[in-house]
Amino acid sequence: AQSVTQPDIHITVSEGASLELRCNYSYGATPYLFWYVQSPGQGLQLLLKYFSGDTLVQGIKGFEAEFKRSQSSFNLRKPSVHWSDAAEYFCAVVPMDSSYKLIFGSGTRLLVRP
Amino acid sequence: DAGVTQSPTHLIKTRGQHVTLRCSPISGHKSVSWYQQVLGQGPQFIFQYYEKEERGRGNFPDRFSARQFPNYSSELNVNALLLGDSALYLCASSLGPETEAFFGQGTRLTVV
């Protein structure tokens, strides 16, 4: 079945430490790939997206993500986390065979220790 | 520049009632999509409209309906509310049906 999996429900890191959030997808063809961030009670903000080309994508707020076709993964990374990064992070895909319908993973909540 | 605006921000309804949620897209955007986000889950696609035509529908019952107006704003209607309809309803707008979506802050619906 087509799906987007974020295996980590919660992740806690210390401020200044590096971060990696995992995302795997299950689709026949490589979909468009996205990472969104959501602060409590807020809407979604796009961090970065991958359509094609360079597999290392740079986004806003110092985030980057790497697309690995062999692993069907699109993991989000940040070299040094700030306390303001505490939020919920969602991986999403737009399958190639559908209209522009975002399909989201279940999210990973990031907690940042001072 | 004004982003996607949704109204109201919060509302409380009773089971069996009807609700209308409203969305104004970013100026120049002609496509609007609706998502439902239940607490603790990722958003689920409900509808996409482009140029007043429905372009996509998610796996939601017929109690859910939507429309898009000539000024590209949109309404989401839910009839016969159930407790399980309690959620954050997100609207997203884009230039077209296959371009980047920008999300509003959402409407928090509580059904009691």
| Number of DSSP strand runs of chain B | 11
**What overall form of chain B do the CA principal axes indicate?**
globular
Major sheet size, sense and barrel closure of chain A: 6 strands, mixed
What is the helix fraction of residues of chain A, given as a range? under 10%
Portion in helices of chain B: under 10%
The stretches of 5 or more residues of chain A where confidence is low (pLDDT under 50) are none
Mean pLDDT of chain A: 92
* Gyration radius over CA of chain B: 13 Å
Largest interface, C-beta closer than 8 angstroms, per-chain residues: A-B, 21 and 28 residues
Q: Count the E strands of chain A.
A: 12
- Which class do the helix and strand fractions of chain B yield? mainly beta
Quaternary structure of the protein:
heterodimer
Description:
The complex is a heterodimer of chains A (114) and B (112). Chain A is an all-beta fold and 114 residues long. In chain A, 0% of the residues lie in helices and 50% in strands. Chain A has strands spanning 3-5, 10-14, 19-21, 24-26, 32-38, 45-50, 56-58, 64-68, 73-78, 87-94, 103-104, 108-113. In chain A, the strands form 3 sheets. In chain A, strands 2, 5, 6, 10, 11 and 12 form a 6-stranded mixed beta sheet that branches. A 4-stranded antiparallel beta sheet of chain A has the order 3-9-8-7, with no helix packed on it. In chain A, a hairpin with a 4-residue loop joins strand 8 (64-68) and strand 9. Chain A is globular and about 45 Å long. Chain A starts with a strand and ends with a strand. The mean pLDDT of chain A is 92. The model of chain B has no long low-confidence stretch (mean pLDDT 94). Chain B is mainly β and 112 residues long. In chain B, the strands form 2 sheets. In chain B, strands 2, 4, 5, 6, 9, 10 and 11 form a 7-stranded mixed beta sheet that branches. Chain B has a 4-stranded antiparallel beta sheet with strand order 1-3-8-7, with no helix packed on it. Chain B has strands spanning 5-7, 10-13, 19-24, 31-37, 44-50, 53-57, 64-68, 74-78, 87-94, 102-103, 107-111. Chain B is built from no helices and 11 strands. The termini of chain B are far apart. The interface between A and B is medium-sized, with 21 and 28 residues.
